[in-house]
Design a protein that fits this description.
Blueprint lengths: L1 H24 L7 H29 L11 H33 L15 H30 L8 E8 L2 E6 L33 E3 L2 E4 L4 E7 L4 E5 L4 E5 L5 E5 L5 H5 L2 H16 L9 E5 L11 E7 L1 H10 L3 H5 L1
Amino acid sequence: MTALLYVLLAIVICIAIWQIIIIFNLRGTIATEKDNNTQGILFALFGVFFYGLMIFSFAKYSVVLLPESASVEGENYDILYAITMILILVVQAITQFLLFYFSFKYRGIKGRKALFYADSSKLEAIWTIIPAVVLSGLVLYGLSVWQEVMDSSDAKNPLIVEVYAKQFQWEARYAGADNELGRANVRNIKGINTMGVDMTDKNAQDDIPTRELHLPKGRKIIFKFRSQDVLHSAYMPHFRAQMNCVPGMVTQFSFTPKITTKEMRLNKKTIAKVDGINKIRKEKGEDSYEFDYLLLCNKICGASHYNMQMKIVVEEPAKFNVWLQKQKTMSQIIN
């Protein structure tokens, strides 16, 4: 595979050199009206191809987009994303159309003279004020969405969960009955105390360590992120959540799950994706895949970065409480 890439790279370099030589050989050549007409037509045809390809891509590959947000806070994120994309696509469609259209309409024709003027205060005001107003609106809305996600001060009975990152796996620690996490530091890592929990802290005694995230539907989750070694990024795409895990400090993020794992498996988009994945896996002779929420690392943190993930299970509160009660506390595990 590497050899093939080198061969392709060599071909691209040769083509680039060939094109540069052609360009230098054309110095001093004056384009004829026929040349201008041909190039204008070709540009117009390319514009038709460009828009056709764009429409085809939207129709063909929209299936790869994520289903609806699995968190309450993610709903506003999706609205912000939709507004931003609509604005970008509208502006892109108009400007690209004008580019192709003007290149064709105003191609070089004998006797035609270009209109030139140094500046236009009216045009400059239009293309400065309109983008400034639109971008200001997007920034302000984005700040409100960010504030909603980051500010958990008004949360009633939130669940406190620590997510601990290290090459190349995740660990989690739930605050126990006191709903307060005990202190932790990498200097305390020893034996089965893999997260460096300070066992002299009374708040740490009832903390619950796990290798799988279970979250109750409808309850605010406040995540505390730490990293043992390098910069990681906790990414939960279905919840529209991402936060860097920085060595030596604790970062925070929160959201409220609104769709259980079982419910998401019945989502039409999810079913379509799973069917597509299983079709490929069947052709390769691999076992079938069943949807699960995942916690991924979104920073290239080393050789096994691609495999750094943790299963997330969202379930009804009653079922979550039963699961949590079955888990052992730090004091039970270490002592």
